[in-house]
# Entry
Amino acid sequence: MFLADRFVKGTCPHCGYHDAKGDQCDACGKLINAVELIKPQCATCNHTPEIRESKHIFIDLPKIQGDLETWVKDRSQQWSANAVSFTNTFLKGGLIGRCITRDLKWGTKIPLEGYEEKVFYVWFDAPIGYISITANYTEDWKKWWQNEKEVELYQFMGKDNITFHTVIFPSTLIGT
# Structure
């Protein structure tokens, strides 16, 4: 079976942290490709995973980086110091393309020829749910999401989802 990147653990190739996950290191905050981990192991059985080739779709974060930096500069004054630090670490290091598909049996299927057996990565499509659930609730959903003068949006972030709320999700919105 294919392992989702979060099910691969090992040593971070950037800082040497021994409990990094296959998508990011919680110690240094860098995004990681699971195949870059040193001494990778399956998080459920502790065996060494076999690297297999698989075709995926990526969001072109380098193309969006300039617009994202402007957005972060405008918005980050209200963020925690930890969120600002993590986000700026990503930006200073230069963003890389981020895979938005997975080889899993569960999830939202990709409606694209050649990708029928793949699903969207949960942190790519889950934040979109914040908006879509509002759109399913009311035809006036734009009053909630596109009305900065009358609506204040508060997001509560834990250390493990800073990347997605300050880089991936905003980049998805900027990219559209």
In short: The chain has a mean pLDDT of 89. The beta strands are 8-11, 20-21, 38-42, 58-59, 98-99, 101-102, 119-120. The chain has two domains: 5-42, 58-175. The chain has five helices and seven strands.
